[in-house]
Amino acid sequence: MKQIYLGLAIHNHQPVGNFPWVFEDAFQFAYLPMLEALERHPQIAVSLHYSGCLFDWLKQKHPEFLTLLKILLDRGQIGLMGGGYYEPILPAIPDTDKSGQIEKLSTFITKEFGHKPDGMWLPERVWEPYLAKILAEAGVKWTLIDDTAFKMVGMDDEDLFGYFNTEEQGRYIKIFPISKYLRYAIPWHRVTRVIEYLLQEASETSDKIAVLGDDGEKFGIWPETCEHCWGKGWMEDFFKAIEDNSDWLHVTKLGEYARAHPPAGRIYLPCASYDEMMEWSLPAEKSWLYTELKHKLDDEQNTEIKQFLYCGFWRNFLIKYPEINRMYKKMLYVHDKVYRARTINKSDCGLDELWKAQCNCPYWHGVFGGIYLTDIRAITYTHLIQAENKADRILHNFSKGLKWSQADFDGNGRQEILIEGSNFNLYISPDDGGSIFEWDLRNQAYNLLCSLFRRPEAYHRAITQNHKNHENSAGEKEIASIHDSIKVKDSIFTEYLVYDSLPRNSLIDRFFGKDTTLEALEKNKYIELGEFAGKAYDTLVENKGHDLHILIKRRAVLNTDKGTGDLLVDKSVVLSNKDEKLRINYRFINKGSTSIDVIFGSEWNINLLGGGHNDSAYYRLPDRAIDDVHLDSRGQFENCNRLFMGNRQLGIEIELHVDRPLTVWRFPVESVSNSEGGIEKIYQCSCLVILLPLYIEPEQELKFGYYWNVNK
Fold first, then answer.
1. pLDDT in the model for residue 178
2. Residue 476: beta bridge partners?
3. Catalytic-residue membership of 124
4. Residue 553: enclosing H or E segment and its boundaries?
5. pLDDT tens digits for 473-494?
6. Any idea of the CA torsion for 295, 300, 304, 307, to the nearest 10 degrees?
7. Burial class of 615 by CB neighbour count within 10 A (0 to 12, 13 to 18, 19+)
8. Which helix (H) or strand (E) holds 182?
9. Rounded-to-integer distance, Cα 420 and Cα 395, Å
10. How far is the C-alpha of 586 from the C-alpha of 328, rounded, in Å?
11. CA–CA dist 650, 646 (Å, integer)
């Protein structure tokens, strides 16, 4: 009689710092229903993974869930997989952190449940060959990787019903291929269709195993799946169908199968992840073309060519999104501090905060929000700053003043200026317009400049297309997978598809014509008159008493109505470790032979979590009321020399003080992003532009200054 094994591996995770209601919804609509269904069906064996950050929440909010989990474990129905405690992309973090995070989760599971995991869930299934050695030395016996990686080395679907041995420097682990067919079929296709597939693949001569490895959130949190899986009973029908066919269909835990059966062979896999992740890592235009080509080959049923069509590499997210790269480099920078501190003092040096900041979610973007999720991005920086604070208490004595250094922080081959003190960090990029790209408030553990610039995405091209649910060969409607459907949450989107020319740094020097409007600036439809924003500046750092002066200047062409001008912009940032002020001084010198008559704009992009008309996030003027105080409002403040921005939940308020009354423009930077909930606008930061009328005769100069202060 034909037989086949079915390995169900379900991965459950919520990002560090995600909203409490998201955790609760996932628990109520996905995690709990799944465990209750397993309790009703004792013949169904599964391998389950919960990230450490999810375990932490469950233990605090729903300890009864862990009790039920242990009951199912003790009766042998489920096996718990290990992994990185805070679900990091393993190739992206240092080896010491890989081993440490794996050990932390293994220790938690062993202590809490009395079962030591021998297999692990690979976060986002991102694989690089050298991981075999790291995982084996951490005690991992087996893991799962998508069948895409196996097909990249020439294997076919029929070869992938078993596990394989792989090694690095003689350290071996076992790898199960995850079936892409099952990922797309469960729970999207009819139960009978899934069972028919498994029967078709069953064998009389070998112990084949088909493996599903996928997110637990797809069973209740992804769009329409709660009603589909539990309301209409798809999962109940699926488990019952497995039980009804138990004479030939055997569900098993993956570790149990690996112990009882020999490998299907040896294999060496390339760098890979699941197919969609590699697609998302491509530049937007290439990602769109790649997807369209795959669809074309599917329509043509051209499997011979499609089997060789694999493209993309997770690390390209560090290229595609400069903001991810900076966050990643900050993580490596803090890692170095934490481990240096640990060699001096074994007390709390920020290691766990560092590990929390390695949670994978903001380090990529696809159908899930990733780097676009402003709160997740902000909390990642919070943990990095907290870790840095703890390490620096051991490494540095800031009582003697600020510390500064030059280093190629972001790996672009050019030097950045890093200023560190007890109250703040400030990172300046001379080659990017002499702009500031990180401003950490160390007392509040918050990076005010964790912004994101608006850029094209592959799914932007699909917004106006009509996406329908799939229809199977029998003409029956089937629910569309989240990977296939695009849902638009808000109407009218084309007007919001605005793309920025430069990253959303701060202290950016803009030069406008007098007819430039706020709307033109917001929509990036204005003419930049000067060659300053985004260009290289000369810099000099000087210590003057207790103050640190960063002198930044550039001489360049300025195009005016009267012809080509020649302008020297000389700006300085003055800092002291005694307070939290950023003093900005400008000197403009007309080096040309014609007068200059333009509008200068000093641009700042500040993220105080002001999205969704957050009532806690506000603008405030000391001398008048504001029609709309929310940080995602737009408009202008006229005759303004003092302006406050704050967020009461964060406990942060900053004050802008200008040396003369001027007009200040404001608007929210909102991107169009795709997530599991659909395509929507997402607030990234608030843009403020201080406008200075700049009229200078030849060989004359004009001075201008302002400061930012952090209010106590």
1. 98
2. none
3. yes
4. strand 547-560
5. 444 444 455 555 555 555 556 7
6. 10
7. exposed
8. helix 180-185
9. 12
10. 33
11. 8
**Whole-angstrom Cα distance, residue 270 to residue 262?**
23
Catalytic residue among 215, 276, 457, 509: 215
Could you tell me whether strands 4-12 and 249-252 are parallel, antiparallel, or unpaired per DSSP bridges? Answer: parallel
Residues 367 and 344: their CA atoms lie apart, in Å, by 43
Half-sphere exposure of 531 (CA within 13 A, CB side): 10
- Tens digit of pLDDT for each residue in 67-82? 999 999 999 999 999 9
Average pLDDT over residues 695-706: 96
Please report the domains of the chain, with CATH numbers, ordered by start residue. Answer: 4-273 (3.20.110.20), 499-710 (2.70.98.10)
DSSP 459: G
What is the rounded CA–CA span in Å between residue 686 and residue 698?
36
The secondary structure element, H or E, covering residue 134 is helix 131-137
- Taking alpha carbons only, the member of 244, 213, 290, 198 closest to residue 2 is 198
In the chain the first and final C-alpha atoms are separated, in Å, by 76
Q: Per residue in 133-187, pLDDT tens?
A: 999 999 999 999 999 999 999 999 999 999 999 999 999 999 999 999 999 999 9
Give the containing element (helix H, strand E) for 636: strand 635-647
Q: Which of 97, 118, 124, 168 is catalytic?
A: 124
CB 692 within 8 A of CB 599: yes
Q: Which two tokens stand for residue 126?
A: 């991102």
- Which residue's entry shows tokens 């809490």? 112
Mean pLDDT value across the chain: 93
397 burial (CB, 10 Å; 0-12 / 13-18 / 19+) is exposed
94-103, 108-117, 141-150, 476-485: the lowest-pLDDT one: 476-485
Q: Look up the pTM and report it.
A: 0.94
Kindly report, residue by residue over 376-406, the tens digit of the pLDDT. 999 999 999 999 999 999 998 887 789 999 9
d(CA 689, CA 699): 27
Residue 416 predicted with pLDDT over 70: yes
Report in angstroms the alpha-carbon separations of 22 from 26, 67, 283. Answer: 6, 22, 30
Cα–Cα distance between 163 and 165 in angstroms, integer? 7
Q: How far apart are CA 322 and CA 330, in angstroms?
A: 12
Q: Compute how many other C-beta atoms are within 10 angstroms of the C-beta atom of residue 130.
A: 14
Tell me the per-residue pLDDT of 273-300, one tens digit each, with 9 for 90 and over: 999 999 999 999 999 999 999 889 989 9
Q: Which residue type does 97 have?
A: D
Cβ burial of 449 (10 Å; 0-12, 13-18, 19+) is buried
Task: Return d(Cα 550, Cα 418) in angstroms, integer.
Answer: 11
Looking up tokens 């930044």, which residue turns up?
Answer: 552
- The DSSP output letter for 661 is E
